[in-house]
Design a protein that fits this description.
This protein is α/β, with parallel strands linked by helices. The chain has 36 helices and 27 strands. A 9-stranded mixed β-sheet has the order 8-7-6-11-12-14-13-15-16, with helices on both faces. About 5% of the residues have low confidence.
Length: 915
């Protein structure tokens, strides 16, 4: 279950009549426990409570108690021996009127009336296997609001299916944005009186909902009518009390979808939430999550994004501003200069979505400005930071419109916080109809025309919020002359996932730089456009990206271009999970890279370990592989720079599956044992090496063809290969029809083969090569060193080699994608003595013997990080120690130190070869 589904289940539980006997089980069921789990708890087989309640080991101990004894019961639960023995995370007590709980790890508590406990559902998300942080718990309201909006949206589409069509989807999204504004406005005094919108719907619309849409339409019409025009508008008296809002939000049609009784009930429930608590940081994303089918229900990333977005904004410019604030202390002149500087800053997100980056940047700058005003004795001073200096480009029209609305709400909330409600209200309405968020394709637009470094104005290239025309007046940048910071999280899209239009976008952007844009991720277009912008303006930029742009074959294509444009990495985050609230905490692995041509003295590198702990290192330079100290670019080569033995890709079949035989086919064939021994041999690719899958192939050398064709089973297979190859549209495949008895390559070891899987899981601590005896054949899903010395296996199995592959050889999704030209041939290894080779050979044999001792366990079994046998782990540790001592005479402290040494050695070795 995801967070939204949990919220819905918890809300339904709170609305039902309290049942003391069933509550604990219903509570656990709401957090995703399966019926079988609940049944075992009910029968007592897994319930070890010593207080007559329910105890689920490693999770929660809870009980329903007598009226008025909740606090005392919670204390007893905490002191219970069963609580300690069961290693529970939470204790919970309720009497149906009062509700109290405690997180035993953090000491945080919840105390509220029973019907209000769903407001705290984020507190209990670990019960569903969802790792939470403070940010998530504080966002419980946002998730509740989104969940209820989602239910309303689905219900309205059920009754108004035409509003879900492409022609009317924009109208539906527009309607939802209007509703959310009204919910927010009625709880923040923007509307006269508390709960005005919801109460009007409740009082003026019929209980059977027959006229709900008409009542809402009249309120919307009032909000689009200026006070001076109210008389001729002939508004109902109950609608006339709403202020004039407009700003494009309520202009145009007031057409409203029809409501069922259920939809009307949902709307009133949503309105009864406290909308003062909404976070404008995720306001836009919340609307997108409701209105976008692809995102609906998968809301988590929007609620954990604030800390991640700050990973971009803090080192890009906020950290430096806070340092200046610290330096200023109480110095009035320095504080004034800093305030003026902040007022001129421009933040530009050329992939702004619903405005998260812009809103958070605005709020952070307002916070610094407020502290300056406080120190200068000017609390409540009007802000000099204009929201029109926070500009964006977004492809989807609705998201672009919502981004502007989110900024408007952020400005209002900041005014309330730092100036007071009265001052904020005085300047809020009517909304300004100017639009400074551009809707369009960022890779086709001229960024300098949208966010110019000098000059006073910008002519926008898209609609104003919702309805206003294209040909508006230019919008001035206020407080001209400041710095520009480009930030954002552009669409990543690898080459295989790009549409033709997106491929054309990249081709256009990279025209004149490279003809290899087809090998790049879509996000690379933003990196180049931002670099071009920095060439024309004093600017820095930092973007979120998948780590693939700093690995493998994309590095030698993209990064020389960025370097030629004068860019240098100012800071970077090595790979970390941009995680969400889904139950499995799924997330994409990303990096953050900040660049400019402004020559920062100290480069900052942030390193996140597997436990999520973060450390920071400073260096004079950071390279494109996000390694300190070296900006060398590794280029693939056909021969090993370390004089290691030759490695080649396995044999490509191009056979339509006809030369490949599985175990069942081999058993059912009419081949005798002698024929099997002569014509059939084991076939191995990644799956066979790692999972132990059994496959075979027909292997016929040219001088044995006539004999092989005498065997009906083999002759039939060869004929089918010929037929398949002749029918192929590929000229190379068709040319192979003249030797249908063979794979494209026929490489094979005479004695043994060191086999390396093409793809290996990132979760394993080591790569998993194997040594296969004769006879065997390798597919093109693996690499092979034929008849290679055993010490090669030790090198392949080392942490040193895994680090190198992870950095330079590219990825298949997040898994390691091996490459002989990029990974093996470029691997820098000191010259090995005969003693070194003997020691490494012994280490290789120890690893193989350790594996053998656990037969028939597969490599997948043995290298599961949670289950790796101790003797195998120790064998790998010895192998690492022997190899690493060859490099520096001791073990390396961590992977970063390993990579620094490898890149240093690579630089020296390639420079030497170059000379």
């Amino acid at each position: 279950m995801n967070a939204v589904e949990i919220e819905e289940a918890i809300s339904q539980l709170a609305e039902q009549e309290f049942d003391a006997e069933s509550f604990p089980y219903a509570f656990l069921e709401a957090f995703g426990n399966k019926p079988a789990t609940i049944k075992r708890l009910k029968t007592g087989s897994t319930n070890s409570s010593d207080m007559g309640g329910v105890l689920q080991r490693n999770n929660i101990h809870m009980t329903v108690c007598e009226q008025g004894s909740v606090a005392d019961t919670l204390f007893k639960l905490k002191d219970s021996p069963a609580t300690k023995k069961g290693k529970v995370k939470f204790i919970l007590a309720t009497d149906g009127e009062e509700f109290q709980a405690e997180d035993l790890n953090s000491g945080e508590t919840v105390a509220c009336e029973y019907q209000d406990f769903p407001n705290h559902f984020g507190f209990f998300l670990p019960l569903a296997g969802i790792t939470t942080v403070k940010q998530v718990r504080e966002s419980s309201f946002d998730i509740r609001a989104t969940s209820r909006l989602n239910r309303l949206y689905v219900e309205l589409l059920k009754d108004n299916p035409e509003w879900g069509t492409n022609e009317r989807r924009h109208d539906m999204n527009h309607f939802m944005a209007r509703l959310i504004f009204c919910f927010f406005a009625e709880d923040t005094d923007i509307f006269n009186g508390e709960g005005l919108f919801t109460q009007t719907v409740e009082q003026m619309s019929e209980r059977d909902s027959s006229n709900t849409h008409e009542v809402i339409g009249e309120m919307f019409r009032a909000m689009n009518t200026k006070i001076d025009n109210r008389k001729e508008a002939d508004l109902p008296r109950w609608a006339d009390q709403f202020p004039y809002v407009n700003g494009g939000l309520f202009s145009g049609s007031t057409d409203t979808p029809k409501f069922s009784k259920i939809a009307r009930s949902y709307l009133i429930h949503i309105g009864n939430l406290d909308w003062q608590r909404i976070n404008p940081d995720i306001f836009g994303s919340m609307i997108q999550a409701v209105t976008d089918e692809d995102e609906r229900g998968e809301l988590g990333m929007h609620y954990t994004s604030v800390p991640n977005i700050l990973k971009v904004l803090n080192p890009l410019f906020l950290d430096e501003l806070r340092e200046k604030l610290e330096e200023a202390g109480e110095n009035q002149r320095m504080l004034l200069n800093l305030r003026k500087r902040i007022s001129k800053i421009r933040v530009f997100d050329p992939a702004c979505g619903s405005g998260n980056f812009l809103v958070i940047a605005y709020k952070q700058l307002r916070e610094i400005e407020a502290e300056i005003n406080l120190r200068r004795g000017e609390p409540g001073r009007k802000s000099e930071i204009p929201i029109t200096n926070f500009r964006g480009i977004e492809l989807r029209d609705f998201a672009a419109e919502v981004a502007r609305l989110a900024l408007i709400i952020a400005e209002y909330q900041c005014d309330v916080l730092y100036r007071g409600q009265k001052e904020a209200l005085a300047e809020f309405l009517p909304l300004n109809s100017e639009n400074w968020i551009t809707q369009g394709n960022a890779l086709r637009l001229d960024w300098l025309s949208i966010c110019p470094p000098t000059g006073t104005g910008v002519k926008m290239q898209a609609d104003d919020l919702f309805e206003t025309p294209l040909d508006q007046s230019e919008i001035d940048f206020e407080n001209e002359g400041g710095e520009t910071y480009i930030c954002g999280n552009p669409p990543y899209k690898g080459t295989k996932n790009q549409s033709k239009a997106e491929k054309d976008d990249l081709k256009e952007v990279f025209q004149g730089y490279t003809k290899r844009s087809g090998t790049l991720d879509y996000v690379c277009g933003w990196f180049l456009k931002a670099a071009q912008f920095c060439n024309q303006a004093t600017a820095r930029y930092a973007l979120v990206s998948t780590n693939s742009i700093c690995q493998g074959g994309q590095v030698p294509v993209l990064w020389p271009i960025l370097y030629d444009l004068g860019m240098d990495i100012d800071f970077a985050y090595q790979s970390f999970k941009w995680s969400n609230l889904a139950a499995n905490n799924a997330g994409v692995t990303v990096i953050v890279v900040g660049l400019s041509s402004l020559n920062s003295a100290a480069k900052r590198l942030f390193i996140t370990d597997k436990e999520g702990n973060q450390t920071e290192r400073t260096s004079k330079k950071i390279g494109p592989y996000l390694i300190p100290g070296s900006n060398v670019i590794v280029k693939g080569t056909t021969k090993s720079i370390s004089n290691l033995e030759s490695m080649s890709l396995g044999n490509a079949p191009y056979d339509g599956g006809n030369l490949i035989v599985d175990s069942n086919e081999l058993t059912e064939s009419d081949l005798c044992d002698e024929e099997k021994k002569r014509w059939v041999r084991p076939l191995l690719g990644s799956s066979e090496i790692i999972k132990g899958t059994k496959r075979y192939c027909i292997w016929v050398l040219d001088d044995e063809l006539n004999d092989a064709l005498q065997i009906p089973f083999i002759r039939s297979r060869i004929e089918k290969v010929k037929e398949m190859r002749l029918s192929s549209k590929d000229s190379g495949t068709k040319a192979m029809a003249n030797r249908p008895h063979q794979f494209r390559e026929m490489n094979s070891g005479k004695d043994s083969t060191i086999a390396i899987p093409l793809v290996s899981s990132e979760n394993r601590e080591y790569l998993t090569p194997d040594i296969i005896g004769y006879p065997c054949s390798m597919t093109n899903k693996s690499y092979a060193i034929y008849d290679g010395a055993t010490y090669n296996f030790a090198v392949l199995s080392s942490k040193m080699h895994l680090c190198w592959i992870a950095a330079v050889s590219g990825r298949m999704k997040t898994d390691y994608s091996y490459s002989n030209k990029m990974g093996w041939n470029t691997f820098p290894l000191p010259k090995l003595t005969e003693k070194n080779k003997e020691d490494l050979t012994r280490c290789a044999e120890d690893i193989l013997l350790a594996r053998e001792s656990h037969f028939p366990a597969t490599i997948a079994d043995l290298y599961d990080p949670e289950k790796m046998p101790e003797n195998l782990r120790l064998a790998h540790e010895r192998n690492d120690e022997v190899l690493e001592r060859i490099y520096i005479g001791r073990r390396f402290k961590n992977d970063t130190e390993r990579l620094e040494k490898l890149f240093d050695l690579y630089t020296k070795m390639t420079e030497k070869k170059g000379k």
